[in-house]
Amino acid sequence: MEAIVESLGLPPTNLRSSLEKGMHMIVGNKYPQCSPSSNILGLASHTDHTIITILLESMSGLEIMDSNDNNAWKSVPATGGTLKVLIGNRLEVLGIGLYKSVFHRVTSNAQMSRVSIGSCLSFPMEEMVEPAMELVDEEHPKRYRASSLEEYIKFLSSKADKSYIESLKI
Ligand SMILES: O=C(O)CCC(=O)C(=O)O
Ligand SMILES: [Fe+2]
Fold first, then answer.
1. Is pLDDT of 53 > 90?
2. What whole-number percentage of the chain has pLDDT above 90?
3. In angstroms, rounded to a whole number, what is the distance separating the alpha carbons of residues 85 and 91?
4. What confidence tier does 80 reach under pLDDT thresholds 50, 70, 90?
5. What is the distance in A from the centroid of ligand 2 to the CA of 46?
6. What is the pLDDT of residues 11-34, one digit of tens each?
């Protein structure tokens, strides 16, 4: 994490105390076998609310949206035992969009069920996260408003018509 923070141009220890107090959730997902004719997704398109998510999956099925190719869905190859790192909303906000949280989804599979384990790194529940002030100047405006994990949970139960990351853009 310190290397990622440093790559934003911030002191590597910048987030240390927030991370020590922060939430680290391990999420297990199981996607049962499902006929392709039903046209059902295993998991709908979303970006993660986290700082980063580290993902381990039993087989392929993960797709990411390629904003450089007309938002086409691209399959992510599952290469045995490889960990995948997804940028979450908090890191996008902190670095004023230098790293983008990617839209991803999981397809269904007619032959086999699939499992994945996500290691989700987050700030403390009530901590307001906003762009790092060291990175903000006249040429680099804030672009994102401050928000917390607590607020994200409320957002989930609201009937918002845009994605969470869009709702954070000023
Ligand atoms: O199962 C996967 O590969 C993705 C899981 C996921 O996106 C999530 O838990 O947020
Ligand atoms: Fe996700």
1. yes
2. 88
3. 12
4. confident
5. 6
6. 999 999 999 999 999 999 999 998
Please state the atom number of ligand 1 nearest to the C-alpha of residue 61. Answer: 3
**Cβ(62) to ligand 1 under 6 A?**
yes
Per-residue b or e along 54-66, where b marks 16 or more CB atoms closer than 10 Å to that residue's CB: ebebeeebbbbbe
- β-pair type (62-66, 114-122): unpaired
pTM given for the model: 0.92
Query: CB count, 10 Å around CB of 48?
Result: 25
C-alpha span between 70 and 90 (Å, rounded): 25
Separation of CA 137 and ligand 2 centre (Å): 32
Q: Which domains does the chain have, with CATH numbers?
A: 21-168 (2.60.120.330)
The ligand whose atoms approach the alpha carbon of 42 most closely is: 1
